[in-house]
Write a structure and sequence with these properties.
Blueprint (H helix, E strand, L loop, with lengths): L1 E2 L2 E2 L14 E4 L2 E4 L10 H10 L3 H8 L9 E4 L5 E4 L37 E3 L40 H17 L4 H8 L8 H11 L7 H11 L12 H16 L7 H16 L6 H4 E5 L2 E4 L10 E6 L5 E6 L3 E6 L5 E6 L18 H5 L4 E3 L3 H7 L9
Parallel strand pairs: 8-11
Antiparallel strand pairs: 1-2, 3-4, 5-6, 6-7, 8-9, 10-11, 12-13, 13-14
Helix pairs in contact: 1-2, 6-8, 7-8
């Protein structure tokens, strides 16, 4: 352990089995075996896919499987698009519950090979004209009639089947855009990206059904909150009276769904939310944008969206004043366009700025207002254009 100018030895025993690294605890010894173990080919693959000049070269670089677990969405100037549920899938033997703890004394449970890239679920150039992914099953990626067929993939691959509100909502909005105009243009993409609504489906619908079914006759305050949620418009745009309440009660349900955990007690969550809003804002229906904030340094701005909306404001710190300071959700956003001649233009934005670790930098908070206003800044690809706009940020220290 490095301590100032000294290095202090701190011996520790590391355990490993033929399965992989071992964790020792009071329940026993548990080995972990995972695809990509002991390999360092990730940088090689990223280098090669960024150097690819066409779709064939890009797929050849992907086939190296150096990146063991990241979804990829592909697009190029020729109009090719694709969703790749990229992963290194272990070639597992049947007869085991691969979602649980496996016996450590059976050689059949020690898989030795991974499946080739050709077995990875991929949806290329669907007739719908779009692909999308929002931490959901790859079987839902391009709209009705253009989806992957689950029966074509072995259950031993462990492919997730979960849907998120973002996936459900994205498909609805893409299909509406196609129905109304036939094509998805820049205006439709921007509208979809900044959408703050929930679909009345999936875990969200189940959760609100549980809240609506609560018998709160003897608790007027909770009954008032229940009635307010019953009138909610399912949109966290910050305009509705129930938005702050809905934002906060939805978060535990979303967390349980995403982590496949135990569904919390709806009455307890409702009580905690009502108590918080009443204590810090004096009402159960404060404007959501007074509650949900984007904060960095001296900048404090209202924010829209919520956990699992396409405009994502997913996790937050509860500040001393009771406000929710968003720390996880939308991060780097980029809109990319190809002209018919192949020229690329793009615009991007970050929630805070390009110097988030340097409070003295002018770029510590300079993108916050743009981010809140759903605006973007130009990305300069051409060296001559970049030269016109470059600046120097003085760095102090070693």
């Amino acid at each position: 352990i490095k301590y100032g100018p000294f290095v202090i030895p701190y011996p520790q025993m590391v355990y490993r089995s033929i399965h992989g690294p071992v964790i020792m605890n009071d329940k026993g010894a548990f080995a972990i075996r995972y695809a990509g173990m002991d390999q360092l080919d990730m940088l090689t693959q990223y280098f090669r896919i960024n150097k690819a000049t066409n779709f064939e070269e890009w797929q050849a670089a992907m086939a190296g499987q150096g990146v063991p677990a990241t979804n990829f969405v592909y697009a190029d100037a020729k109009g090719n698009i694709g969703l790749f549920y990229n992963a290194m899938f272990p070639d597992r033997a049947p007869g085991f519950d691969w979602r649980g703890v496996l016996p450590g004394d059976q050689s059949a449970a020690v898989w030795q090979q991974t499946l080739p890239f050709t077995r990875v679920p991929a949806l290329i150039n669907p007739a719908s004209g779009y692909v999308m992914n929002a931490n959901n099953t790859p079987y839902t990626a391009a709209g009705p009639g253009d989806e992957l067929e689950p029966a074509n993939y072995s259950p031993l691959m462990g492919i997730e089947e979960d849907e998120t509100n973002r996936s459900l909502r994205s498909i609805v909005l893409f299909e509406e855009a196609i129905k109304n105009g036939g094509k998805i243009g820049e205006a439709e993409i921007r509208r979809i990206k900044y959408d703050t609504a929930y679909e009345r489906a999936g875990y969200a619908e189940d959760w609100f059904d549980k809240i609506a079914a609560l018998d709160l006759e003897n608790d007027p305050k909770l009954a008032e909150a229940q009635a307010l949620l019953a009138k909610w418009d399912w949109n966290l745009d910050g305009e509705g009276a129930a938005d702050a309440l809905a934002l906060m009660v939805l978060r535990p349900a979303n967390k349980a769904h995403y982590q496949r955990g135990k569904i919390p007690d709806p009455q307890q969550i409702l009580q905690e939310t009502v108590d918080h809003l009443t204590e810090y804002f004096g009402a159960i229906d404060p404007p959501m944008k007074d509650v949900l904030r984007l904060r960095q340094g001296d900048v404090d701005l209202p924010l829209d969206g919520g956990n699992d909306t396409i405009r994502a404001s997913t996790l937050w710190d509860v500040e001393d004043d009771g406000r929710l300071s968003v720390r996880h959700g939308d991060s780097f956003i980029m809109f990319v366009e190809w002209a018919r001649d192949g020229a690329v233009t793009s615009r991007s934005i970050q929630p805070f700025g390009a110097a988030t670790t340097r409070p003295d930098s002018p770029h510590y908070t300079d993108q916050m207002q743009l981010f809140v206003d759903h605006k973007l800044k130009t990305v300069y690809f051409d060296p001559a254009e970049l030269e016109k706009h470059k600046t120097s940020d003085k760095v102090v220290g070693n």
